[in-house]
Amino acid sequence: MKHLVGLPSLRKEVEDICTRAREHCKLGLRPQNLIVPLDPGNGRTSVLEYVSGMYRKYGVLDFSSGPDPFVEIEMDGSLRQMKQAFCTVEDAAIYANHYSHVVGMDVSEMAAHIHESQFQEFLRRTKELCGEACVIFFVHEARGRNEERLIERLRETVDFVKKLPEEPYSSEELCEAVRLALEEEGARVGEDPTLCSRLLRRIREANLHSVREARLAVQKILRGEENGVEQE
Known about the structure:
The protein contains nine helices and seven strands; from the N terminus they run ααβαβαβαβαβαβααβ. By secondary structure, it is an alpha/beta fold. It has two domains: 8-163, Rossmann fold, CATH 3.40.50; 171-231. The strands form two sheets. It has a five-stranded parallel sheet, sandwiched between helices. A two-stranded antiparallel ribbon has the order 6-7. Strand 2 (70-74), helix 4 and strand 3 form a beta-alpha-beta unit. Helix 7 (171-184) packs across helix 8 (193-205) and helix 7 (171-184) packs across helix 9 (211-225). The radius of gyration is 19 Å and the shape is globular. The two termini are 23 Å apart.
């Protein structure tokens, strides 16, 4: 199951739901939909892997509607693309009429279209989807007035939705993200404290702030710009 770096409020929310999984199932309750402030390239897919993995392990959701534990879509604000995105979710329901797993939805671009006709269609379809699946809405960490209004409209429309706080990664958390990425690339990092300190120094010196930046640093390390990483 995916190890999630940082984002303590998200992890606590998911862990609390998993702790009460038996009670939820007995009463027919579903986990809350979540609004997560997290920029693109900062671990959104990792969040979906973590949430779906936890919910499957503890039986929070029924994962029988299709082979994919989660679906990730984004909105660009146009009606045509929005319909395509929702069709992607519907098509993931191979063994049932509706997809009932975890859906990650980047809704930030909808903020510029609140006063347009397709926004009402977006809200309608989103409300329906939230009654069938567990939806995680991704918004930017730093938001303008329109995006804040978008969040308000989502909270007014969707039942059982909770907005989580902004939680920037610390240098140590980015270092851990780099270490995990190295292992995913096939490097045997182990528990070498010297290597970890070099990684942390690189992150601080380059003033890195995102997982995407950390992964770019990984590529430099794998190209031999850092010593002491043993490749398979």
